Amino acid sequence: MSTSADAPSRIPHVDYLVLDDGEPHLVAHECASCGARFFDRRNACAACFGTEFTTVPIATRGTVQAFTIVAFAAPGIPVPFVAAVVDCDGTSVKGNIINVDPDPANVATGMSVQLATYSLGTDDNGVEAVGYGFEPAT
Ligand SMILES: [Zn+2]
Q1: The pLDDT of residue 6
Q2: Rounded mean pLDDT of the chain?
């Protein structure tokens, strides 16, 4: 039995994060002509100028391709944090590495990670904004 009826609604912070269809996952727009994938909305493919896209789910596990530990950011953004590019079964996804100390000892290229969501806060109506990152794979 689900008890979610009393829980606040949750809305994804970005429109390519899907929360209400099984496990949380990301989706991309895939060019019908060449298969290039984009997370933002596009009118035409940057690779081939095709204009037809399908929505495809992105693997929730991947490996860290590149990362940087960000020490300076806009006011209000806690630093340091780890910004990374994760190879999710062939699709490059930008995301922060979360649930680890932002220290080079804890993050490495090639390390296995999995998608994780976290709360960005709840508004006055009880609607929770949810963001995503990647955490070390279990
Ligand atoms: Zn294309």
Answers
A1: 56
A2: 92
Question: In this model, does residue 132 exceed pLDDT 90?
Answer: yes
Using DSSP's 3-state secondary structure scheme, residue 21 falls into: coil
The total of structural domains in the chain comes to 1
Provide the 8-state DSSP code for 130: E
Distance 49 CA to ligand 1 centre (A): 6
Cα 28 to ligand 1 centroid, rounded to whole Å: 13
Q: How far apart are CA 129 and CA 115, in angstroms?
A: 16
Report phi then psi at 4, rounded to 5: -75, -10
Which domain covers residue 123, as residue numbers? 10-136
Between the CA of 93 and the centroid of ligand 1 the distance, in Å, is 18
DSSP 57: E
